[in-house]
Amino acid sequence: MIGAVEQGLIFGVMALGVYLTFRVLNFPDLTVDGSFTTGAGTAAMAILAGWNPVTATLAGFGTGFVAGTVTGLLHTKGKIDGLLAGILTMIALWSINLRIMGSANVPLLRETTLFTPLREAGLLGTWGAVAILAAGVVVLGLIVIWFLNTNLGLSIRATGDNGPMISSFGVSTDFTKTLTLALSNGFVGMSGAILAQYQGFADISMGIGLILVGLASVIMGQAILTQRWLWLGVMAVIVGSVIYRLIMAVALDLGLNPNDMKAITALLVVIALLIPRWRGALGPFGQRMSALTGKGGAATGATVDGGPASASSASAGGASVNETALSGSSTTPTSSTGTSGAIDGQG
Q: Which terminus of the chain faces fewer neighbouring Cβ atoms within 10 Å, N or C?
């Protein structure tokens, strides 16, 4: 069970990346399945070449960052549909990953990794290692929260809410989309690099179906915890990753076939998506549950089931960006209201 928690925390780094695209940018990015292996393969080959494990992990972040940038450029500059752009990059990364790794599997069992000190100290597989991993992942979560509250982060959030509106304030949505995709896949690549060192090998197929795992972590975590505040919504993603791994561990302990794990993951995502709809079907009782758990759309500025924010909430978000991040814009408050009102009338 402790091993499941450790893996859940490692995959929590990946879930933070999925959160940036799926929740913040409202972008269905399938690059994750390829960039995860890219980060793992890069770190593995770097360690075999004698690199410091920390540097190798950062290299995994860098290659994931590049993969996300490619998807962003295909979508923004190439005008390719976002879903298709992610699929194209993911397919190309399969061949690139084989080039990086040189073979389908790269062992690291006798190499010095991030987990070698923990293993030598007898901490790996104990709650001490869990505490260390949790501290590291929480620090990354705090960095994400800080970034999303900066001027650039507010622009990214507004891009996900209402791209045409924020464009009217002079923000380049092409840049914000590409940057978010790059950062997202950077986190995914870093997660792959850490997992390769944790399990002692990198494998060409380790990223297959990982986007579903990321979505399960994001949706389950935010279905259980409140989304009323940004900081709690981000931390819920990490909690969801741990819960997902625990559910998988319990399913295996009960004797379920490991080949059924993907189907179980899909079922968990479906249930998590349907919970808000079931809550609405319960009438006043469901509404009281929504109020208690903070799932109301007015509180979060987005629909409960992860859909795009309403035009009115996007306009409000755009106004805050105009006041903070875009104070130099020539658009006056009156014209800003008119712009957002026009968008609201269109959508």
A: N
Confidence of residue 34 (pLDDT cuts 50, 70, 90): very high
Q: What is the mean pLDDT of residues 9-15?
A: 94
* DSSP label of 36: H
Which residue type occupies 96? I
Does the structure show a pLDDT above 70 at 313? no
What value does the CA radius of gyration of the chain take, rounded to a whole number of Å? 21
Task: Please enumerate in sequence order all residues whose Cβ is within 8 A of that of 323, keeping only pairs 6 or more positions apart, or say none.
Answer: none
* Nearest alpha-carbon partner for 269 in 223, 238, 205, 208: 223
Domain limits, the chain? 2-281
* Residue 111 DSSP class: S
Residue 93 above 80 pLDDT? yes
Token digits of residue 1:
């069970």
Please state the pTM of the whole predicted model: 0.78
Question: In the CATH scheme, what is the code of domain 2-281?
Answer: 1.10.3470.10
Partners of 106 in the beta sheet? 202
Nearest to 219 by CA among 202, 200, 236, 235: 236
**Buried/exposed code over 268-301 (b: 16+ C-beta within 10 A; e: otherwise):** bbeebbebbeebeeeeeebeeebeeeebebeebb
